[in-house]
Each structure stands twice: as structure tokens, then as C-alpha cells.
Design a protein that fits this description.
Layout (H helix, E strand, L loop, with lengths): L4 E8 L1 E5 L2 H4 L2 E16 L10 E5 L3 E4 L2 E19 L8 H19 L2 E3 L2 H20 L4 H18 L16 H13 L6 H8 L3 H12 L3 H19 L4 H7 L5 H12 L3 H9 L7
Antiparallel strand pairs: 1-6, 2-6, 3-4, 3-5, 3-6, 5-7
Helix pairs in contact: 2-4, 2-5, 3-4, 5-6, 8-9, 8-10, 8-11
Length: about 290
């Protein structure tokens, strides 16, 4: 029987993590530090210390699918380990669909950094949720599996709402197709960098033609229009809130061609970037 959920407390001295995406499929591992401190050293076990990426771990830190060796400082470290499968959530159930959406955001964050340093409030809430899940898992009273699922959804939402969670969720909403949801999350996180359709296809495992058809069906826009819209919105935000040169605004918004940027921005905003900045920073005054 496939493992869907497991949780335990560990008083840590040293532990190696070898999370294998291909082997485990949709199984995820969360490690939360509730006491003490330590380090997570990632890299080949035989590599010299200088060649291994070392991350400091402390109270309130949450690791998502950690890799490497986690070692406690002499004073020790107490962690909670959770293993859970995405099969706990069904895309056909509204609450579960939301949970998978939030999980997608966290997976996006983990592509850049698998450590989330929660705020004090987030850390306190996480500790409470971990204790509740441990109690349910150990005692297994009637309905415990549903209680654990609800607590896990709360955990995911706690991470997403935390002030230190740095994936933008502006304008994002859950979509019916989970693969297009993955693609949209990827594009929203990476639009400021060079992106090709092939890059996006890797995030959603669809054929090119199927992807384009589903993307238009789910978002109401073509992939190119969606991407250009994100980039122009980012440019508009930078024009309104900074005094950066327009060529720098274009580059930071994902445009590598200035004339292309001017053309698209005028088409989507109805005016040039310079005129847009003037209209925002110097509003017209009435004589009344």
C-alpha cells in the first residue's frame, strides 16, 4: 500500500536526505525545525566542504524536499518530519483543488530555495499545526485521516500567507487543469527571465499542440499574449514606483529588445512607457 501520510518528531544528531523525484513521484517531505539549530550540507558526499552548499537551519525554518546532510549543532535540534502524497488531494474536490494550487506555489519556491524561514507568527502557527497532526496520527481516533488532511491544508495555507514567502500570487487563481496550473505558476515565477515554450512544457509534461490548446482554454489567452501581459504589467509597476531608465525597466521585466517592448507596451497600455510614467507620477489637476 502506497504511503500517503507520515509524521514524527526527531531529536536530531545527524541525518542524510536523498530525495529522489523520479523514484517517489508525488511524495513530498517537509522538515520543520522547532528547537535548536544546525546545518544542511548539499552536494556529493565525497566532495570537499568548500564545494558543498551549506545552509544554516534554525527555529521556524521549514525545508521542502531537502537534499543533503542535516546536522545539529552541539546543543541539538528537534525537528518534525512529514511525508505526504499529493494523492491525498483530489482535483475534483474544491478544497483539495485549492490545496494542490497552494502546493504548486510552494513547489515553485523550492525550485529556487527549499528553505522557507517563517515569520514568528508563522512559526508559532506551524508548531501548533504540527502538534495537532502528531496527536491525530499517534492516537488515530475516529475520523483522524480527515482531521490530518484538514491540518495539512492549513499548513500549506500558513506557508503561502507568511510574510516571508516570496512567490508572488498576484492575479493567480486555481485552474481546472492541473498541468496548465503548473505552467501558469511557472510562467508567473519566471516571466522576468528568458522563457521558451520548451521550458514551460518541461513544467507541465504536455505536447506542444495540446499545451497551446489547453492554455488558451484555461486562461482565455494565448501563451505569448499571457507572457507579454505579465511583462508589461511588471514594466508598468516599475515605471510607476521607480526612476529607473526605461531600458533598465524593459530588461527587468523580461524584454531583451527595446523596440519590441515599446511596441507591446503601447499596444497594451495605450501609450508609450515614458507617457505612462508621466501620467502616473504627474497627475493632471483640475481648475475647480
Amino acid at each position: 500500500m502506497k504511503l500517503l501520510f507520515f509524521i514524527r518528531n526527531i531529536d536530531l544528531a545527524g541525518r542524510s536526505f536523498k530525495f529522489d523525484d523520479e523514484r517517489v513521484g508525488d511524495l513530498h517531505e517537509l522538515v520543520f525545525c522547532r528547537e535548536g539549530a544546525g546545518t544542511l550540507a548539499a552536494g556529493a558526499s565525497g566532495a570537499p566542504a568548500t564545494a558543498r552548499a551549506v545552509t544554516g537551519i534554525g527555529v521556524g525554518h521549514l525545508l521542502f524536499n531537502p537534499r543533503g546532510r542535516l546536522t545539529a549543532e552541539p546543543s541539538g535540534m528537534s525537528i518534525v518530519q512529514i511525508l505526504f502524497s499529493e494523492e491525498l488531494f483530489s482535483p475534483s474536490v474544491p478544497m483539495d483543488k485549492e490545496a494542490l494550487y497552494v502546493l504548486g506555489l510552494i513547489k515553485l519556491h523550492a525550485r529556487r530555495q527549499n528553505l522557507i524561514a517563517l515569520s514568528r507568527i508563522g512559526s508559532e502557527r506551524m508548531t501548533t499545526l504540527m502538534d495537532a497532526m502528531l496527536w491525530e496520527f499517534q492516537n488515530r481516533y475516529r475520523g483522524y485521516s480527515w482531521a490530518i488532511r484538514l491540518k495539512l491544508v492549513e499548513l500549506l495555507i500558513t506557508v503561502m500567507r507568511d510574510s516571508r514567502f516570496n512567490i508572488s500570487i498576484k492575479s493567480l487563481k486555481p485552474l481546472a487543469n492541473s498541468r496548465i496550473q503548473d505552467a501558469v505558476l511557472y510562467v508567473n515565477a519566471e516571466f522576468m527571465n528568458p522563457i521558451t515554450v520548451d521550458d514551460v512544457l518541461e513544467s507541465c509534461a504536455l505536447s506542444r499542440s495540446h499545451f497551446h490548446a489547453l492554455f488558451k482554454q484555461e486562461t482565455g489567452e494565448t501563451f505569448v499574449d499571457y507572457l507579454n501581459g505579465l511583462r508589461c504589467e511588471r514594466a508598468a509597476e516599475l515605471l510607476a514606483t521607480s526612476d529607473k531608465p526605461i531600458i533598465e525597466v524593459a530588461g527587468e521585466s523580461g524584454f531583451n529588445n527595446l523596440s519590441h517592448f515599446y511596441h507591446l507596451f503601447r499596444r497594451l497600455k495605450g501609450m508609450s512607457p515614458r507617457s505612462y510614467r508621466t501620467s502616473i507620477t504627474q497627475p493632471a489637476y483640475s481648475d475647480s
